[in-house]
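Hello Y.,

Per our agreement to keep a running log of every chain we model this quarter, I'm adding this entry. I've kept the format consistent with earlier entries: sequence first, then predicted structure.
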Amino acid sequence: MPHATLSNGSLYYEEQGAGELIILLPGLGHDHTYFAKTLPLIAAAGRVVTPDPRGLGQSSPAASYSVEQWAADVLELIALFKAPRAHLVGSSLGACVCLQAALEQPAKVASLTLVAGFSEVDPLLEMNFRTRLRILDAVGLGDVMASHVSMWTLGRTFLATPDGRAQMDKLFASVRKNSPARYRAFIETLLRFGRCEPDQTGVPKLTARLGEIACPTRVICGDEDIMTPPALSQQMAQRIRGAALKVIPRCGHITFTEQPAETSRLVVEFLQGVTRPNR
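Predicted structure for the entry above:
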């Protein structure tokens, strides 16, 4: 099984395709299987690598977690693959990691595709995360958490279908692979990313730095996303120079699950416009 050996651990990954390096980064609590429906489609645009982020799946755990650490892992992965730079595609938390990597080492990032992402945690999103922490304290990673996560992440249109209800069960089965302690650590990481903790009073949000990003960027979201609503995607698109926003109709937060074909089409369309043809 392929593992990339990093300076302080290893990342499991899967890959398909050939050409310029494209790295797919999943949402909170998920491993590479998050992209099961879309990896073969996106591989039309290049060499696609989808790792299990540190602490998830078959990758090494860490003593503590941060968006900065996940971004550092991605940047090290680019070097290990001997690529001069990579196109980063991230969903939700994965989009946060993409943004952090682009700000840390812009020369290593060829383009950004930010799907259902956010550059800051607004009051309602903070409430969502803190409610998850309270559910963990009260009843753990059980049915109550499953209902809470599903209500916020899957669109109303999708949940009304048999496939939507089936995917809801698969979604939460993936989340439950985490221990309650590790899931708590991931949520606390996002609260720190959003500058929501008491010791971060006055610390500028990442949104303030978006104007520094100069690489080609596409922003994608679903119009039924209540977790990271289109307004947060619009904010990123407006602040990143030249970024374009694409909104998927009748789609919630996890576009790669709800509308895999349309999401992949938008990703591939963008990547094929910013990559060199594979020769």
